[in-house]
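Hi Q.,

Before the meeting this afternoon, I wanted you to have the guanine prediction in hand. No need to reply - just skim if you have a minute. The sequence and ligand are here:
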Amino acid sequence: MKTLLKGQTLTWRADPFSTPWQDAYTHTTQGGVLLENGTITEVGDGADLAARHPDAETLDYGAHLILPGFVDTHVHYPQTGIVNSWGKTLVDWLNTFTFPEEMRLADPSYGAEIAGVYCDLALSHGITTMCSFATSAPASVTAFMQAAQDRSLRAFAGKTCMDRNAPDGLCDTATRAYDESLALLKRWHGVDRLSYVITPRFAPTSTPDQMDALGALWRDHPDCLMQTHLSEQTQELAWMAKLFPDAPDYLSVYEKFGLLGARGVYGHAIHLTDREIGALSDAGAAIAHCPTSNSFIGSGLCDVSGLAGRGVGIGLGTDTGGGSSFSMLRTMAACYEIAMLRDQTALHPMQLLWLATAGGARTLHVGDKIGTLAPGYEADLAVLDLASTPAIAQRAARAGDIWDATFPTIMMGDDRAIADVWVAGQRVQP
Ligand code: GUN
Ligand code: ZN
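Predicted structure with the ligand bound:
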């Protein structure tokens, strides 16, 4: 069966951090996207597509904007229930709110409940692909994978390994981290649209033995992604210097244990040295920029355009619940604000939307499957209402072009702006 979606469309032609943004997109005011068996088969002029495919079931979104579904490259689904817990910076926040809540997900029924709540919230915000940390309990990976599978999501997740500096109830060991991760990898990696991600939480909560074991697991399964945290807060850096007194910098610890590579996704990456930036770039690695989290827990101002200019891949992450929102619109807004605060760089709305879609897809090494509207790509779509609230509508009504019309939704929009969502060619009404 063919489905034709009509509306405004944006497609990406190039990376707007290495090509002038003006040359990196195509906008069609009365565009169309043809879907067939879960795949995008044509993108073009809406009337032309309608004339050539009279048998297609047609849905006309009018002035709404049809985009690729959003890609959240860094989230902690188990922290859904503690999002916006008040008043702490990273280490105190982990100990006070996060670890106790993550402990609760050892109960499979609670894990399943939270995984369902999280996946539905993500979908209602137009997120069709996410890369999540689970907890150290294998059941929390299973709960998430099942919830994502039930909803046909393209989803990435892994058991969050920790064997020190965390409550006993959350700690595993080097051997258990390896064995439990391997069993989950074998069960879920490549099943439907699911991928397993090797996941040491971060160096302060993994012993050298555990990092060594997970580095070996990654060497044995090089097609898996590896995700962790890197250089988020200055107090964390001071702690790292005590735990690894011989290490020249934070990233060198991951390098030493085989945890730096092209399929590595490093959350935050704010307080980097020049050497670390060069090493990330040389490795072909990517960072997950999590701007709402960086302001909420007071981490600092990531240099997005500087890192992109040095050839480091970048995706956006909500980092819920250190991040304060489930919304990729709010995440793009915070990305804009942080770049402005850092050095008065004005990221263009095209760059923000690209980061939230194609940039994220590339970060997760699925840039050939999702992240833009093009023939052969999977039919994951978010449809934006560019006038979803009175405040946004009055501003958009005065807009001179598509970017002027879209930026108010990026800055002020929330789930009310998500008019519709398609996952693998199926409509999921938010
Ligand atoms: N560093 C280690 N664990 C976490 C986490 O759960 N959230 C954030 N924001 N940073 C971390
Ligand atoms: Zn995180």
